[in-house]
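Entry 14. Ran structure prediction on the chain below.
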Amino acid sequence: MNENTAEHVAEVLKAVAHPVRLQIVELLQTGEMCVGDIVEALGGKQAITSQQLNMMKDKGVLSRRRDGARVYYRIENKNVIKLLHCVHDHCEQKKG
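Output, structure tokens:
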């Protein structure tokens, strides 16, 4: 892996390496959701959730679209889901 690729991989990993961001990715696995529904599902504050969503969008993990006053997010990089499933499976095996 060359240096540029390694830096990009590290940025993607950092983008999801937070409990709230992991929960957001898990929510979005099934499809697009608006910010309000994500906030409600997580039980958090909209400002904090929006900050987390924007950070993942900036790193290419998520994409968004606007429909009137609503903003919808979806997984842009499907490989992130595969990666998180592998890490989750590893953690579950270690608990065993």
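The chain has five helices and three strands. Will compare against last week's run tomorrow.
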